[in-house]
Amino acid sequence: MTLPAKPRIFIDGEAGTTGLQIRARLAERTDLELVSIDAEKRKDDAERARLLNSVDVAILCLPDEASRQAVAMIENDRVRVLDASSAHRVEPGWTYGFPELSTAQEAAIRTSTRVSVPGCYPTGMIGLVRPLVDARLLASDYPVSVHGASGYSGGGRTLVDAMEGRGGAHKLAGPYRAYGLTLDHKHVPEMRTYGGLAHAPLFTPSVGAWRQGMLVEVPLHTRLLGGATGRDLHEALRAHYEASRFVDVMEFGDGSPDVLDPETLAGTNRMELFVFENPAQGHVLLMARFDNLGKGASGAAVQNLDLMLGLDAERDYAVREEVTA
Ligand SMILES: NC(=O)C1=CN([C@@H]2O[C@H](COP(=O)(O)OP(=O)(O)OC[C@H]3O[C@@H](n4cnc5c(N)ncnc54)[C@H](OP(=O)(O)O)[C@@H]3O)[C@@H](O)[C@H]2O)C=CC1
Ligand SMILES: CC(=O)N[C@@H](CCC(=O)OP(=O)(O)O)C(=O)O
């Protein structure tokens, strides 16, 4: 694939929560040309279509339906698309933008013309589970449960505004809310597919009164692990992520640290993975900590963009919380 000297990028949805955080990361970059839309034409389809068809990569930071429409507007087959929405995550013809899955996945992202950025909760769950399934330490038919707790920016601009007193109501606004209680959250299909699982995981999300950062937990029972211990799982994760720039496997935990703060990695593209075990009870707890707007969205989008363009994909950025839609 021929790469232009200074690739042109347009972010459709640049004024939203995810779009603004991508812009903040790209603001200082001189190796890219960021094309912007006039604020009053943000939803003017003719102007969006003109810009979408004029760039090397179109990044979509839109609600799912608007994202599907944007893809349909692209007639120029030289335009590559990076979609942050959940519209195309398990869609044939799209590449799942989780380069840490395998070297083959990273290679596929580099050449793909259609890349879908993973959802925030799936980033933690797949990051924990898939290497263990691939290593045959976790059976693909294990009855996996996943619990997640996200900062409120995960709910986009309307939840951010409700939480920060800029008006509007949102059903998730409050100090802590469990949701997704129909057990069919939109992230379940990608968790199953890219987690390498035979059955849909039981996923229970929740949201709390902090802005950015999340914890994703996968509890396991050792009696269902066919002889593997927590240490075996930890060693497999450590080996899988040994060369990873953004994913760190933390020391094997026997209860220390005994608390985890979801906000620690806010503003970065990093993810920390933890394995805790109580052998007497036969319990193992896998946990991931990262920023829902970093490795869970905008940071991952920039990492994918750089891979698609053959640029340095190992840069990280410290994006401050003031970047608000
Ligand atoms: N927030 C997060 O942590 C994550 C979000 N995502 C996904 O990224 C996408 C964007 O989410 P997020 O940034 O949080 O949402 P926001 O609501 O904050 O931003 C979406 C932006 O898209 C604009 N928009 C809506 N419809 C159109 C349209 N037809 N044409 C042009 N612009 C439009 C909105 O404008 P207006 O506000 O005026 O309607 C808004 O500026 C979603 O699909 C979301 O699920 C993915 C991972 C994590
Ligand atoms: C707290 C909150 O509301 N979170 C969002 C997920 C954010 C995200 O990952 O967006 P995508 O679905 O596009 O991947 C939710 O549960 O719908």
Automatic annotation (TrEMBL):
Pfam families: Semialdhyde_dh, Semialdhyde_dhC_1. One of its GO terms (biological process) is L-arginine biosynthetic process. The active site is at residue 120. Its main location: cytoplasm. It is found in: Cytoplasm. GO terms for molecular function: N-acetyl-gamma-glutamyl-phosphate reductase activity; NAD binding. Residues 8-109 form the Semialdehyde dehydrogenase NAD-binding domain. PROSITE patterns: ARGC. It catalyses: N-acetyl-L-glutamate 5-semialdehyde + phosphate + NADP(+) = N-acetyl-L-glutamyl 5-phosphate + NADPH + H(+). It is an enzyme of class 1 (oxidoreductase). Pathway: Amino-acid biosynthesis; L-arginine biosynthesis; N(2)-acetyl-L-ornithine from L-glutamate: step 3/4. Keywords: Amino-acid biosynthesis, Arginine biosynthesis, Cytoplasm, NADP, Oxidoreductase. Its EC number is 1.2.1.38. One of its GO terms (cellular component) is cytoplasm. Belongs to the NAGSA dehydrogenase family. Type 2 subfamily. Catalyzes the NADPH-dependent reduction of N-acetyl-5-glutamyl phosphate to yield N-acetyl-L-glutamate 5-semialdehyde. This is N-acetyl-gamma-glutamyl-phosphate reductase. It comes from Deinococcus yavapaiensis KR-236. The gene is argC.
